[in-house]
Amino acid sequence: MESDSGNTLMPRIGDKAPDFEAVTTTGKIRLSDYAKDKWLILFSHPADFTPVCTTEMSGFAQRKQEFNNLNTELLGLSIDSVHAHLGWVNNVRKNTGVYFDFPIIADIDMKVSKLYGMLQPNESETAAVRAVFFIDPKKIIRLIMYYPLNVGRNMNEILRALEALQTADKYKVALPLDWQKGDKVIIPPPKTLQEMENRLVQKDIELVDFYLAKTSLN
Ligand code: BEZ
Questions:
Q1: How far apart are CA 159 and CA 188, in angstroms?
Q2: pLDDT value for 218
Q3: How far apart are CA 77 and CA 156, in angstroms?
Q4: Which of 102, 155, 193, 206 could tie 59 with a disulfide, CB 3.0–4.6 Å?
């Protein structure tokens, strides 16, 4: 279904990631077959050969190993041809030595951009905004970021959010403001009177009140 902005209805947290087939710098990719059993960071940038995008794409490339260590693959996208992508990849490698060795979608027909609400016409009618979709191994969208054309993203925050999602899943906990790996985590609040009474006398936790209690994972 299309909205008046031309995007299909924007995907939301908890939705199955819309499937697509696309040409990329590493060949054709079908989302449902890509990064099987892994997390995926699908991210868009407005245009090749532009300054902010070059810093961001270099950031993803330089920290790719940290994503891979979190069982996560990268998949970039912009509304440029694969030839433009290849030229840019080669140009950045020549100028800085940084190599974008993960697939970048050439979304020249805007199909994927529209499917993921990356085309936001009041910001730009021809370039994708800076979107980041965190997609889990079941291909469920777990977190979405949208940034405008003139503000670069924060790679530390992207990695922190990814690790937070994985930690929340693994330990069935929630993560407080500014949580970083190694910090205490939030235990789910009690759901019954009995659970509340138990929580109030629990010794091995940091208890603010029955609904806010923290524990260490180690
Ligand atoms: C940039 O990456 O610097 C950029 C791209 C598109 C529009 C504005 C800035």
A1: 23
A2: 76
A3: 20
A4: 155
CA of 6 to the centre of ligand 1 (A): 22
pTM of the model: 0.95
Please give the residue range of the domain that contains residue 42.
21-153
Q: Is 110 in the pocket of ligand 1 (CB under 6 A)?
A: no
Q: For residue 163, which of 179, 139, 187 has the smallest C-alpha distance?
A: 179
Q: 77 CA distance to ligand 1 centroid (A)?
A: 14
CATH code for the domain of 120: 3.40.30.10
CA atoms of 82 and 74, how far apart (whole Å)? 17
The catalytic position among 29, 53, 106, 129 is 53
Distance 198 CA to ligand 1 centre (A): 54
pLDDT for res 3: 55
Please identify every stretch of the chain with a pLDDT value under 50, giving residue numbers as ranges: 1
Domain boundary among 125, 153, 181: 153
β-pairing, 72-78 vs 39-44, is parallel
Atom 6 of ligand 1, residue of closest alpha carbon? 46
At position 102, the amino acid (one-letter code) is F
The response to whether residue 162 sits with its C-beta less than 6 Å from ligand 1 reads no
Q: What is the pLDDT of residue 6?
A: 55
* Contacts of 206 by beta carbon, 8 Å cutoff, 6+ apart: 184, 213, 214, 215
